[in-house]
């Protein structure tokens, strides 16, 4: 039950786009579409940003988008804004009533 | 407003036990599965456990299986995590989270749309 693999950091200038990857296996991301992304600002609880690979909960800006190819999911943020600076975590259902998270990516808006 | 409030954290010696609680408000508690997720200091999120709406199915991370027990009391809108045989590596902020219900009431979606502020557990 290893964590999903994310790059530790990513960055972009305001207005630019950035993509964060999340690599799993054929037993989690590659098998299920229960892939989600969470945003966490320092000292705050996580917030659901993307679910079912690409869907956005109500209230999440359409600047945030998700996708999946094989065992890798991706979160893209376009039109970067200062408030997007946060930690981002991917998550996937892994079968047998288990969920796994990625190690997290710190997004810096330069 | 949907709200989750955790309690029960504290400083405990290795090998001892602790029971966390989470009280829910603002939604029909027994319509949703619930989760515990923890975050060690300066580290990432780790799913700990989950329970469906009627306690019929549960799941545990390998790191806590056999030591932690999740339970819920729908009459009291409360979720619990009994933590036994605690280890230093269990030190973390423990969050209670609600299932999104995106696929219908009383069905796991495996997404967490409401989170509490967390309660801190220190094993030392």
What's the structural blueprint in terms of helices and strands?
The complex is a heterodimer of chains A (110) and B (124).
Chain A: E1 9-12, E2 18-23, E3 35-40, E4 47-50, E5 64-69, E6 72-77, E7 86-93, E8 99-101, E9 105-109
Parallel strand pairs in A: 1-9
Antiparallel strand pairs in A: 2-6, 3-4, 3-7, 5-6, 7-8, 7-9
Chain B: E1 3-7, E2 10-12, E3 18-25, E4 34-39, E5 45-51, E6 58-60, E7 68-73, E8 78-83, E9 92-99, E10 112-115, E11 119-123
Parallel strand pairs in B: 2-11
Antiparallel strand pairs in B: 1-3, 3-8, 4-5, 4-9, 5-6, 7-8, 9-10, 9-11
Structure description:
- Chain A has 110 residues and is mostly beta strands.
- In chain A, strand 5 and strand 6 form a beta hairpin.
- Chain A has no helices and nine strands.
- Chain B is globular.
- Chain B starts with a strand and ends with a strand.
- The model of chain B has no long low-confidence stretch (mean pLDDT 97).
- At the A-B interface, strand 3, strand 7 and strand 8 of A face strand 5 and strand 10 of B.
Give a summary of the structure in a few sentences.
The complex is a heterodimer of chains A (110) and B (124). By secondary structure, chain A is mainly β.
Question: Which characteristics define this entry?
Answer:
heterodimer; A: 110 residues; mainly beta; 6-stranded mixed beta sheet; 9 strands; B: 124 residues; 7-stranded mixed beta sheet; 4-stranded antiparallel beta sheet; 0% helix; 49% strand
């Amino acid at each position: 039950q290893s964590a999903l693999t994310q790059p530790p950091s990513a960055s972009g200038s305001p207005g630019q786009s950035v993509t964060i990857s999340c690599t799993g296996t054929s037993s989690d991301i590659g098998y299920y579409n229960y892939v989600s992304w969470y945003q966490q600002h320092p000292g705050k609880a996580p917030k659901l940003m993307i679910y079912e690979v690409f869907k956005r909960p109500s209230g999440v800006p359409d600047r945030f988008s998700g996708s999946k190819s094989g065992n890798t999911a991706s979160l893209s943020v376009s039109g970067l804004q200062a408030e997007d600076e946060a930690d981002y975590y991917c998550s996937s259902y892994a079968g047998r009533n288990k969920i796994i998270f990625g190690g997290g990516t710190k997004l810096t808006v330069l | 407003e949907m709200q989750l409030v955790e309690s029960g954290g504290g400083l405990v010696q290795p090998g001892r036990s602790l029971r966390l609680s989470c009280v829910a408000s603002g939604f029909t508690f027994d319509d949703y599965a619930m989760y515990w997720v923890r975050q060690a200091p300066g580290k990432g999120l780790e799913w700990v456990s989950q329970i469906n709406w009627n306690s019929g199915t549960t799941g545990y991370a390998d790191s806590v299986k056999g030591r932690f027990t999740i339970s819920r009391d729908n009459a009291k809108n409360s979720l619990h995590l009994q933590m036994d045989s605690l280890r230093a590596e269990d030190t973390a902020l423990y969050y209670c989270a609600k299932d999104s219900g995106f696929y219908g009431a009383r069905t796991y979606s495996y997404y967490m749309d409401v989170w509490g502020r967390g309660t801190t557990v220190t094993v030392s």
